[in-house]
Write a structure and sequence with these properties.
It contains three helices and six strands; from the N terminus they run E-E-E-E-H-E-H-H-E. It has 101 residues and is an alpha+beta fold. The N and C termini lie far apart (44 Å).
């Protein structure tokens, strides 16, 4: 835990010298607390397989998966800020198209 009582984990990997640095393993799905405005939320990073397996267990078949990157964010500024640099390296979101069997 950090001095403020919150986990030192970050949802997104920080940028260091134009590289993403992942402070935790992709396989780490532990819960952690994060300050948001005047409150705190409990979050958990999940592996893509966790979502896919939950859909299968609930009786869905995945028809398509899209890892979304936003060209709009990429081209936002001539000199890229850390958000647009990250968007060029990892998906902004993941969407599943699934059908109930």
């Amino acid at each position: 835990m950090a001095e403020n009582g919150y986990s030192a984990r970050l949802i997104c990997a920080p940028m260091e010298e134009a590289r993403l640095v992942f402070p935790n393993s992709y396989f780490d799905e532990d819960y952690f607390k994060m300050p948001v405005h005047d409150s705190e939320v409990i979050l958990c990073n999940r592996k893509i397989s966790t979502y896919a397996n939950a859909l299968a267990k609930a009786g869905f078949v995945i028809e398509q998966m899209v890892e979304q990157n936003s060209r709009e964010v990429w081209e936002k500024e001539a000199e890229a800020d850390s958000k647009s640099l990250k968007a060029r390296m990892v998906p902004i979101s993941v969407c599943f198209k699934a059908r109930k069997l």
